[in-house]
Design goal:
The structure is a single chain. 51% of the residues lie in helices and 18% in strands. By secondary structure, the chain is of the alpha/beta class. The strands form 4 sheets. It has a 6-stranded mixed beta sheet with strand order 13-12-9-16-14-15, covered by helices on one side. Strand 14, helix 21 (518-531) and strand 15 form a beta-alpha-beta unit. The longest helix is centred in the N-terminal third of the chain and has 22 residues, at 151-172.
Length: 554
């Protein structure tokens, strides 16, 4: 049960952190204001999701813990990512001994293990960071165990404590207070915990009835923490003594003194971390001489997955982004803005090029909540906002967000796919009254015939009753599984040919998913051009997961 819960809830919490990554990045002022904490935490967590997905369906807690430990270590990015990996490792190791069903005592034990592992990884723990929040959450878990609270009560209490601890970080770390922000890594950790708990308890909304301990006029710990998330450009920051963030994976070929290696890293710079267990390690240090760091570790084994970031340039980029945001917020609200949902980075880029102000990460297996969409609407500096859900499962959340928004007029154009959103956005006429525009966009998206190609994950049957087996390639035309085969290219061609036979079209928009290589995509386009020479093809990389090909014909 515990293993199944983790496999189900972990991706949901990771998606929430990914959605907040840019917001977390903007909070990043310690140890270096290079604006990458949210990105690094998100990449680290996504590596775990991939490891979990590769496990067999009946994997036990030992297998889950191993995947979490290995995935987070191999995928750890930056100081925040490495520390996050150690927190995850500790919790996972602690849960190996948990009973079924899990108890508050098991939860407390897991967080005590996380504190031990994470604090051992950092030579000089700093108060007011993610480590402080972890320790506070662990202390709260111990208290819940002593009071014999239920699992639900315990988990709720831990989320409350996480946000309260986040809100206290500026009082513990002066650089945070100077910049008017909470600690970025701590905030990211609270977001992950909140969403994991909400998923584990089967809630569609997050815990909101927090009791604040830090401001008399605030009745929500989460709101109190967010109240301190006021971004300020720190042009007076003097810069770190060290320019380069060096991180790499290390495979030892012979035993070596880990303490001595860590001391050497400390002599090369700061924020030094050496985590893992023989023979696999993750190394992180801020240094001016990354070559010497690599040369030293090469004495004992092999280095790979080497990343060297120039933090001076990243700091300048962060400051420029903050100034741009401040200038945008100072501008008067424009008449109309757009929010859209997309699963792939390529899809998001196209939507933004067509005028979408905020793209929310989500899709078929990662549906954003009403709260996520409301938060996106709040970021659009416009009097009226149109939401494009781009998935049938997201439409209700979008409509709920539209109804719940009080300070803006919010409308929903019920797009089911990203290609439908493209057509709807092409129909936008700037001077048209918003109600008329919503109607025009709805009509435009209705004229789109779309298709998707994906693989079956279980046995089923097509629209004509033909059997579908796990692993088969399915061609979905306008929500109907009409083509079944074994080859993505052939199924895509069969779908397009059938759609053209039913009703000729002039233009094809086609998006390649993240699992399709550029070479394969080019071959597919060539095959379509040969089969349908009169069809104008607009091809892009959508980078959407699960669906190698998404397309539409108009």
């Amino acid at each position: 049960m515990i293993a199944k819960t983790i496999r189900t809830c972990f991706p949901i919490a990771v998606a929430a952190v990914a959605d907040k990554a840019e917001e977390i990045n903007k909070l990043n002022v310690f140890p270096v204001p290079d604006g990458d904490t949210g990105t690094n935490m998100s990449l680290t967590l996504q590596s775990v999701v991939k490891e979990l997905a590769a496990l067999s369906v009946d994997a036990d807690m030992d297998g889950i813990a191993g995947a979490i430990t290995h995935g987070s270590l191999m995928g750890a990015r930056g100081n925040s990512g490495v520390i996050t990996s150690q927190i995850l490792r500790g919790v996972a190791e602690g849960l190996r001994e948990a009973g079924e069903p899990i108890s508050s005592a098991d939860i407390a034990s897991a967080f005590r293990r996380a504190v031990k592992v994470a604090f051992q990884a950092v030579r000089k723990p700093i108060e007011g960071t993610i480590l402080t929040v972890l320790r506070d959450v662990s202390t709260k878990a111990d208290e819940c165990e002593k009071r014999r609270m239920s699992v639900e009560e315990t988990l709720d209490a831990l989320v409350v404590e996480a946000y309260q601890s986040v809100a206290r970080t500026p009082d513990l770390l002066p650089v945070l207070k100077e910049n008017g922000v909470v600690d970025s890594g701590a905030f990211g950790f609270a977001v992950f915990l909140e969403n994991f708990v909400a998923a584990a308890l089967g809630r569609t909304s997050k815990v909101e009835n927090f009791s604040a301990t830090f401001e008399a006029d605030t009745n929500s710990a989460k709101a109190g923490a967010l109240d301190r998330v006021k971004i300020e450009a720190n042009d007076d920051w003097e810069g770190s003594e060290f320019r380069y963030c060096n991180e790499f994976l290390f495979k030892a070929e012979k035993p070596f003194d880990e303490d001595e290696a860590l001391k050497f890293l400390g002599s090369m710079g700061d924020c030094e971390l050496l985590v893992g267990a023989y023979p696999d390690y993750k190394v992180h240090v801020h240094s001016n001489t990354p070559n010497l760091v690599l040369e030293h570790m090469l004495q004992f084994g092999q280095v790979y997955e080497v990343f060297i970031h120039n933090m001076d340039l990243e700091v300048a980029e962060r400051t420029a982004k903050i100034h741009a945001d401040q200038e945008a917020s100072a501008e008067p609200a424009k008449p109309l803005g757009f929010v859209a949902v997309a699963a792939g980075s390529g899809e998001a880029e196209i939507l933004e090029s067509l005028g979408v102000d905020v793209v929310v990460s989500g899709g078929q297996t990662m549906n954003p909540s009403t709260a996520d969409l409301l938060e996106a609407v709040s970021r659009v500096n416009a009097e009226s906002v149109i939401i494009l859900p781009n998935n049938g499962n997201i439409r209700m959340a979008a409509e709920a967000a539209a109804s719940a928004c009080e300070d803006k007029h919010v409308y929903v154009v019920p797009t089911k796919t990203v290609p439908q959103a493209f057509s709807a956005l092409f129909a936008v006429m700037p001077d048209m009254p918003v109600e008329d525009l919503v109607e025009a966009m709805t009509e435009a998206k209705a004229s789109v015939r779309d298709g998707e190609v994906t693989r079956a994950v279980r046995d089923s049957q097509a629209s004509d009753g033909a059997p579908i087996h796990d692993g088969d390639v399915m061609g979905i035309i306008c929500d109907s599984i009409d083509i079944v085969g074994s080859d993505v290219h052939q199924v895509t061609l069969d779908c397009i040919n059938r759609m053209m036979d039913e009703e000729e079209g002039d233009a094809l928009t086609i998006l390649a998913g993240q699992d399709m290589s550029d070479e394969d995509f080019e071959k597919l386009i060539e095959a379509i051009e040969e089969a349908q020479p009169d069809l104008e093809i607009d091809a892009h990389r959508g980078e959407q997961p699960l669906y190698p090909v998404i397309f539409s014909i108009e």
